[in-house]
Amino acid sequence: MTGNDANSRSPVEAKGWAALGGRARAWRVVHATWSVAQLGCLGYIWGSAVTGRRSPRLWACVAFLCVEGGALVVGGGDCPVGRLQAEWGDPVPFFELILRPRAAKAAVPVLAAVSLAGIAALVLRRPGPVARTAPSSTEIAP
């Protein structure tokens, strides 16, 4: 769930790990892992935009962020799994576990803008020269 979910209901106190059911715990782990992977992809995209490096991993990162963007569009700016998350016993938006509600609400549009800017930077900047490794001693003829 995103910080935007805070608009749709009154603030809810986050439950501690011990108070969560099995599905809610599993979802928090999956959501946290997904979020860390997205931040890693975002960093890789920006690193590639700055250096001009291109690789299959870069395009996988772009695709991964596009999947997240599509999910947010489907959810109207909120995580489309948010209702299930609440049914599983965890009604608190994910970003509100680590950010104050106002910052959580702003996180999604800010991260979306940073993602789009990184992808635009990839498109606008030409790829750099391909780095070649020096030949090994076995490849050099005497």
List the helices and strands and how they pair.
Layout: H1 22-51, H2 56-74, H3 82-87, H4 101-124
Describe this structure in words.
The protein has about 140 residues and is mainly α. It has one domain (about 20-125). The protein has helices at about 20-50, 55-75, 80-85, 100-125. The longest helix has 30 residues, at about 20-50. The radius of gyration is 20 Å and the shape is elongated. The termini are far apart. About 20% of the residues are buried. Mean pLDDT is about 85; it is low at about 1-10.
Structural class: mainly alpha
Number of helices: 4
- What does the average pLDDT come to? 83
User: What percent of residues adopt helix (DSSP H or I)?
Assistant: 55-70%
Q: Compute the gyration radius: what is it? A: 20 Å
Order of helices and strands: HHHH
State the low-pLDDT regions, or none: 1-10
How many structural domains?
A: 1
Strand portion, in percent?
Answer: under 5%
Question: What would the principal axes of the Cα set say about the shape?
Answer: elongated
Rounded to the nearest angstrom, the distance between the terminal CA atoms is 63 Å
How many beta-strand runs?
0
- Major sheet size, sense and barrel closure: none
